[in-house]
């Protein structure tokens, strides 16, 4: 689980441990009205887990939070691959 402190300072989600996993990792930036978080994720990881962790760290209800990339709403089962997200993209909350 990602703590609020690690989100504010930046964190790795999920952790990558092999060279193959490192090749499939990417950095994303998530912004809301107050904070910007830099996170490292695997391209095939479901973004729903990331969204739930961000909401939990900020005390928000996942059912009321909305996440967007390039104007398109992100669904819980979406992955970076399925949405063609590239390294360095910004997800808006």
Strand residue content: 15-25%
Number of strands: 6
Major β-sheet strand ordering: 1-3-2-6
Name the helix and strand elements from N-terminus to C-terminus, one letter apiece: HEHEEHEEE
**Uncertain segments of ≥5 residues (pLDDT<50)?**
1-13, 15-19
Mean pLDDT: 78
Overall CATH architecture? Roll
Q: Please write the CATH class name.
A: Alpha Beta
Overall body shape: globular
- Structural classification: alpha/beta
Number of helices: 3
Report how far apart the termini are. Answer: 19 Å
The biggest sheet, with number of strands, parallel, antiparallel or mixed sense and barrel status, is: 4 strands, mixed
CATH topology: Ubiquitin-like (UB roll)
Helical fraction: 10-25%
CATH superfamily: Phosphatidylinositol 3-kinase Catalytic Subunit, Chain A, domain 1
Q: Please indicate the count of domains.
A: 1
Radius of gyration, in Å, reads 12 Å
Structural summary, described in words:
With 93 residues, the chain is of the alpha/beta class. The protein has a single domain (4-92), classed as Phosphatidylinositol 3-kinase Catalytic Subunit, Chain A, domain 1 (Ubiquitin-like (UB roll), Roll). Helix content is 25%, strand content 25%. The chain has 3 helices and 6 strands; from the N terminus they run H-E-H-E-E-H-E-E-E. The chain has helices at 4-9, 19-23, 47-58, and strands at 11-12, 25-31, 36-42, 68-69, 72-73, 90-92. The strands form 2 sheets. Strands 1-3-2-6 form a 4-stranded mixed sheet. A hairpin with a 2-residue loop joins strand 4 and strand 5. The longest helix is centred in the middle third of the chain and has 12 residues, at 47-58. The chain is globular, with a radius of gyration of 12 Å. Residues 1-13 and 15-19 have low confidence and may be disordered.
């Amino acid at each position: 689980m990602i703590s609020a402190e690690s989100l504010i300072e930046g964190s790795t989600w999920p952790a990558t441990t092999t060279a193959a996993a490192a090749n499939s990792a990417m950095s994303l930036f998530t912004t809301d009205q107050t904070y910007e978080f830099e996170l490292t994720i695997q391209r095939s990881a479901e973004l729903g887990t990331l969204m739930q962790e961000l909401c939990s760290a900020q005390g928000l209800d996942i059912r009321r939070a909305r996440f967007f990339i390039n104007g398109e709403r992100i669904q819980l089962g979406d992955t970076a691959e399925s949405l063609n997200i590239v390294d360095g993209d910004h997800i808006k909350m």
